[in-house]
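User: Can you predict the 3D structure for this chain?
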Amino acid sequence: MTTVMLVHGAWHRPTCWAKLETELHALGYDTRSPALPSSGEHPTAGVHEDAAVLATELASIEEPVVLLGHSYAGIPITEAAAGAGTVERLIYLAAYMPDKGQSMYTLHGIPDPEDMSGLFPLISEPRTSLYGDLADAEAEQVMSELVQQTVRSFAEKVHVAAWQDIPSTYIVTEQDKAIPPALQEKMAAQATEIRRIASAHSPFLSQPRQLAALIDKIARSA
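Assistant: Here is the predicted structure, written as structure tokens:
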């Protein structure tokens, strides 16, 4: 039995995975969806605390793991999976894929912030940028559940890049308005393989069955 660990992106909580988890369970997978401490009502944590939470969760799983990070979560999974012997495959879903010493700021080619304390503003026009292919009612519901995110999570640099040693798949979301597909393709060039899905930034909401089938294909090839 393989466990698929799903790691949410910035401003989100694990509840965003509910639809995808249902589809993965139907395909016979166990799932885990840990909460990152850099997201919440009054968060203060950064990348390294997020990675530590994920490493602890990974250590509690005995069976093989496919570790999937969406968007921001690509950064902490890159650090957390290092040395985790159960992780058979990393999946970057429209995600940042840093090399050692890189951060979200680095990957966008912008200077590090002078002050790493405080909160990072919510992405502009989330209805369009995050949920462009969702129906209005569902998009409104999901947006009502968004939380705060720390600057530290975007500014801190990873100490290690697990994808150097663990096979990885990058799933490019071809209609993405949050992380431009061109930037995704650039990062994806580092991965063992590239897959694509015709969706906006959050296919786990708009196309959960298709995404689950794609994860199944990837897991079976691991």
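The CA atoms of residues 4 and 66 lie 5 Å apart. The chain has a mean pLDDT of 97.
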